Structure formats: structure tokens, C-alpha cells
């Protein structure tokens, strides 16, 4: 078992602590949080060992799980990497692309593993269909949330949209060609609602909308590719696949047939992939343990986390 420690015991940090304690692949050693009174409260309530310094915790573990505010990601990660510890770091990887690139290079130099917490990669609705997504040419994503003061220290692009940026980059095998974007601040000092159009070199276009001032929550993505349409509902954990193929000469009475202007006929088929319910955060943490133990590349590497941040920053710079 890998000895793990958590930096940050806020809302998400407490979830990580609970799951690491439950995991058969980790031994939870303890946590550090800079707010002493709060840290003692968490320790007393849940029984986790509270360390009074970051260095003390780092020295005691094999893996550091960084669940601090984004502004602190870089310094925490460097402290762990310099001591040869593997790092799991919540999204976005760092505040700036320059910091992310430094972490990526440091991890490679130290020959340790690093993974970024882009949890939607482990959402069962996405994992059920990701192998069916092949050369999509148009993608539409909506990630809408009711207002929550937590997370408003960063633009909605880094808070919410970056989930969909990472998903899209993981399925589009092409470099970004151009980006158009707009963002509006309504409640926060940074944009609360944003839209971005990403054009890729291979002709694929992705249209993304993110809002943290909506009246209802929505997390949906739609992937359009030749002869198929794939819908993923990350919130409800549902997927739908609509496929088309050449219609038979004598279709049955209930077959759905489309005919274009040239007279070509296609038959439509609906598939509802089986969704295996899971805890996505536990899965991402345990996949990181597997990568460490097997010497393999993490599912969401620091390189991929850096690329997602690069695109997110390009979007912000286009406002």
C-alpha cells in the first residue's frame, strides 16, 4: 500500500481523505491544513492525523494529494517533488501555464508520477462511450451550475469549463487552430458565464458554454461524427448513442429511415450503453496508485493537465 497524505481539508479535501482511508491501495497517513483551529476540528471529528507542517507530512508519505486552492498548487507540488514524492493535484493543475510546465519538467526529471484531478474522465457516462467517440467533427458542451461562492476566486473557465476542455482534448486528435470566446462577470470579480468556440487543425469545432449563475444544474456534452451522434450527461450519468448505417432493401415497419436529396437511405439505431456506477474520485485516485505501482503513464498526466490549462488561458485571453 502507498502511504498518502492530503494537503488541504476543505470541502473536496475531506472527500479525498475519506476515500483514501477507504481505499485498499493507500494507507492514509494524515493531512495538513494551514488553519490550525479548523484542522484540529477535522481531526477530532473524523479521526485523521493532523500534521502541523507541510514538510513533516511530505516526509511521512509516498504520495501527496494536493487539494488546496489553485494559488497554492505550485508551491505545494514543488515541495513534494523535490523530496521525490508522487503528486496528485486537483484541477486546474496550477495558476499559470508557466508553473504547470515547470511541474511537468520537474516530475520527469525526478522520475516520479504526477496526475491531475480531472474527475470527469472517470465519470461512468463518459467511460461507457469514450471508445465509441472516433474523429468527432462537432462537439457541443454545456456546464451550468447554480451560484456557489466556493470557486469564485477564479474565472468560470478555470472553475467549470476546464472539465469539458480536458474531455474534448482527450478525444480530438488534433492541435488547436483558433479560439473565439466571450465572458461576462455578473456576481464575481471574474467572469461567471463564458462561451468558447475552439477550432482544430483537422476541422473539428467545439462549442463550449459554462455558467455558475444558472437556475439549474446541467453538465452535458454532444459529439457528432460520421454516421454517429453520442450524448453524455455527466450529471445524470446517462449516455445515448445514435448510429446510422445503410438501410436494408426491405426494412421492417418500425425501422427509422432517413433519405437525403440524392436518394441515399440510412437507418437509425439507438443504443443506451450500460453504465457501471462508480465513485469517480475514488477511481481516479486508485488509477494513480496503479500508475505508480506499474510504472505506467497516469490517465490524466501533468502534460494533459498543462494542455487543458493552456487552452483555458487562451479562452480567458480572448475575452
UniProtKB/TrEMBL annotation:
Query: Transmembrane stretches, by residue range?
Result: none
Kindly give the InterPro entries that the UniProt entry links to this protein.
Gfo/Idh/MocA-like_OxRdtase_N, Gfo/Idh/MocA_Oxidoreductases, GFO_IDH_MocA-like_dom, NAD(P)-bd_dom_sf
**What domain of life is recorded for the organism?**
Bacteria
| Span of domain GFO/IDH/MocA-like oxidoreductase | 156-216
Please state every residue range assigned to the domain named Gfo/Idh/MocA-like oxidoreductase N-terminal. 3-118
PANTHER family of this UniProt entry?
Answer: BILIVERDIN REDUCTASE A
Q: What is this protein called?
A: Gfo/Idh/MocA family oxidoreductase
